Amino acid sequence: xxxxxxxxxxxxxxxxxxxxxxxxxxxxxxxxxxxxxxxxxxxxxxxxxxxxxxxxxxxxxxxxxxxxxxxxxxxxxxxxxxxxxxxxxxxxxxxxxxxxxxxxxxxxxxxxxxxxxxxxxxxxxxxxxxxxxxxxxxxxxxxxxxxxxxxxxxxxxxxxxxxxxxxxxxxxxxxxxxxxxxxxxxxxxxxxxxxxxxxxxxxxxxxxxxxxxxxxxxxxxxxxxxxxxxxxxxxxxxxxxxxxxxxxxxxxxxxxxxxxxxxxxxxxxxxxxxxxxxxxxxxxxxxxxxxxxxxxxxxxxxxxxxxxxxxxxxxxxxxxxxxxxxxxxxxxxxxxxxxxxxxxxxxxxxxxxxxxxxxxxxxxxxxxxxxxxxxxxxxxxxxxxxxxxxxxxxxxxxxxxxxxxxxxxxxxxxxxxxxxxxxxxxxxxxxxxxxxxxxxxxxxxxxxxxxxxxxxxxxxxxxxxxxxxxxxxxxxxxxxxxxxxxxxxxxxxxxxxxxxxxxxxxxxxxxxxxxxxxxxxxxxxxxxxxxxxxxxxxxxxxx
Length: 543
Known about the structure:
21 strands; DHBP synthase; 35% helix; 7-stranded mixed sheet; Nucleotidyltransferase, domain 5
């Protein structure tokens, strides 16, 4: 059977396709529309339908809307009631009620009666528990909000979910973190990772005070009382310089988030006795917290959905329906679920753009040589990633052995200099270079300590707190990137390269060849590796 999942209610509109229990395709609308997180200048833009992503999911599988057996919409308007007419939630609910009709217009031939509402946090839970490597596991969802709750704790056994606890709004760890994000001059529901990065520069001196207003309740839930953040640090206008007070606030909020999550997972473990935990929801993108849950929590294994944010509910909704129809989901083994292009298609783009290029006999060796010469390489290969992390498909690569490359890449991307860049490492070598943290770690969802004898050798990827958010590469699943790493090590002695997303500030990650050429042309990147082809800046602008 064929199930299409749709997220189109808060932000990060996305679509996913599950056929016979197997994940076939998944993509965020921003990769097509070029509107980051699906946001437009208008207030109600969060309700953007993933029209292009859904159409692509169907076309890549050779399907038409008529071929779909059911559609999962990851929000259930029946769970939101009693709001004043014209209230924001009333408007959101009325939009969701009309979503089946909107979808049938966007996808002609789709029967509105095929649309099933899947509660937001159930969809999140399915994206973790049903996509994880295990049939039985505990599951924790934590984000800003769903219809009427902000959190779900439960357990999957034999593919069936038992919900053990939820937390009603307005109490929300995700919304609390969003508030602090906005208070520190960043964009809420967008820049929370910047707060996590800033926290490493501060001291959690407000932790005792924060424990009084953010606390668990002993029944699987928690409370977040109203907080005047100005009492900790004055609000920052966007782009203003931050001070130690702001870093200390970030550090305190980050530390308290970690403590509360630890208390929640301990309660969940006591209730379930499971040794495996699957995580989803936007809070699960906090890789520092994830690592602490693995280190100090009671679960022996932790798996995090690579598209843990709202885009992942499209996948979760489709998996939930597949399970309900008696088609158990196959585990998610790769996040490369987006668009891909043949060598011929990529070459045609270069010819149409009249861009000078070469086709080396071994693109991996050629790119390794460029990196060894300290050139920045835009790397565009295979199917794009589902979720917010660049995982070696749409990446900027650089030499990790030069400390200046942190500043250099942040300048290329037009982002804040306090933000770290990440290492990509051969899985077989990760243990000797990085300490605390799981290996393999293919989705960049945990942090690892950098061993002291290696920190001086790869300074560009070492954050101020001595950690790195690594991505491990297996030759069995990523042979091309594994060859780049091996060839780079042969030239430099370092089995590590810098990996950050292929985009510039405020823009979604590059997805198609046009995006790649535009990004290359507008930013100081030295080389573009577009499939098997190399484009060198000096040759382009000399022609």
